[in-house]
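agent> fetching stored inputs for the pyridoxal-5'-phosphate docking request
agent> found them:
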Amino acid sequence: MTVDVAKNLHEVLGNLPQDIRLVAISKYHPDEYIRAAYAEGQRVFGESHEQELSHKVEILPKDIEWHFIGHLQTNKVKYIAPYISMIEAVDSLKLLKEIDKQAAKHDRIINVLLELHIAKEETKYGLTLDACRELLKDGTWRTLGHIRICGLMMMASNTDDQKQIAAEFDTATRFFEELKVCYFADSEAFKERSWGMSHDYLTAIAHGSTMVRVGTTIFGPRVY
Ligand SMILES: *Cc1c(COP(=O)(O)O)cnc(C)c1O
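agent> prediction call returned; pasting tokens
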């Protein structure tokens, strides 16, 4: 192994306050890197491609909690529904309904986050704040018994300007508080704010994050 995964992992963990969880983003990284992090006690990993994830699930320890962090096509939901621990990037009612349907088949309740689009980039997925308000106002989600909305997820703009990034995280945090009051005051589950990646997770933990998604800093550059 050319990357010292154990050392990198402990550095990141050392930077996190106790109440902030790490999702180690292992997409495009080999199984041995995941095993190295696992051996150090890491149990939560994130992947963004269904096929790659399915392969890893088969060969890696069964007590890993897998988060799906990428854009998920509705026709792929059925493959991950039996085991996925959290689907982080839900950005439509259609996807939410499909997750509910597939979860029901396995008699599960699947944890999800609603993905927000706050960053400047046009290519990014996610709900605008207004679209997210609409989705919740519509109320259909309340009838879905096999999903549990646990909070929000977002990616900040891909910039070195940590001030702008911080402002985007703050926007997301304020929006979380708004939704908490309007829709989730009685929900203990609605508590997660998944933001912060390798280049901005230190900013994220100072700006409302409860869950960071760090890949490159732990596993090195991805080989595509
Ligand atoms: C790849 C990815 C990450 C991790 O990015 P790094 O810069 O490698 O830390 C986090 N979140 C999402 C949604 C990703 O796709």
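agent> quick read of the result: The CA atoms of residues 161 and 200 lie 10 Å apart.
agent> awaiting further instructions
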